[in-house]
Amino acid sequence: AEYMGNQNQINMQGAQIKREDVEITKDDQANINAFSKMNLRYHTISRELQTLQENIKNLEDALTEMELMDDTDVVRTKYGETCLVSLDLEQAKAGLEKILAQNKKDIAAFQTEVDEVKKKMNKLKATLYTKFGNSINLEEE
């Protein structure tokens, strides 16, 4: 938290309170801190989710391209930064399908977490807005 002298505000990531004769208890501060942490986690998970969705699209595009290849074609696959391995088409497809399946499972897990975090944030928002009204800003800027 950062106290802003003459402006009579406390700024936190995801939360801002304007001091207007509102007493902030230890529990209120704990709720504000919890909201701030959840807000940060929400954005982190959302970015991870977006990255996974982009990866899935790329994997699906690669699998589509492989469907157009001849069965005798060899696919060069990059492992790490510098290692290239030649695989037959079926091995390459199987590897991509396995990665694709794992990414889809990861997306489901991240989506569940996003939903849970958002639900908890909304509950804290309701609690804090009930006490502080317009004196607190928990909305994204």
Which helices and strands appear, and what pairs or packs with what?
Layout: E1 2-4, E2 9-12, E3 15-18, H1 26-67, E4 74-79, E5 83-88, H2 89-132, E6 136-137
Antiparallel strand pairs: 1-2, 2-3, 3-6, 4-5
Helix pairs in contact: 1-2
Distance between the termini: 17 Å
Biggest β-sheet description: 4 strands, antiparallel
| Tally of DSSP helical segments | 2
Could you give the order of the helices and strands? EEEHEEHE
* CA-based gyration radius: 24 Å
Percent helix, as a range, is 55-70%
Give the integer mean of the pLDDT values.
Answer: 84
Structural class: alpha+beta
Using the alpha-carbon principal axes, give the shape: rod-shaped
Strands in their spatial order, largest beta sheet = 1-2-3-6
- Spans of at least 5 consecutive residues whose pLDDT stays below 50 are 1-10
According to DSSP, the number of beta strands is 6
Strand content: 15-25%
Give your account of this protein's structure:
The two termini are 17 Å apart. The chain is of the alpha+beta class and 141 residues long. The chain is built from two helices and six strands; from the N terminus they run βββαββαβ. Helix content is 61%, strand content 18%.
